[in-house]
Amino acid sequence: MQPVVEVSGLRFRYDDGTAALQGVDFHLFPGETVALFGANGSGKTTFVLHLNGVLTGEGRVVVCGMPVTKENLTEIRRRVGIVFQEADEQLFMPTVLDDVSFGPLNLGIEPAAAVERAKSALGDVGMLHALDKAPYHLSAGEKRRVALAGVLAMNPEILILDEPTTSLDPPGRRDLARLLGRLPQAKIIVTHDAWLARRLAVRSVFFEGGRIMGDGATDELLKRFDWECDAAEAMPARLD
Question: What dihedral do alpha carbons 215, 36, 67, 7 form, nearest 10°?
Answer without folding.
Answer: -20
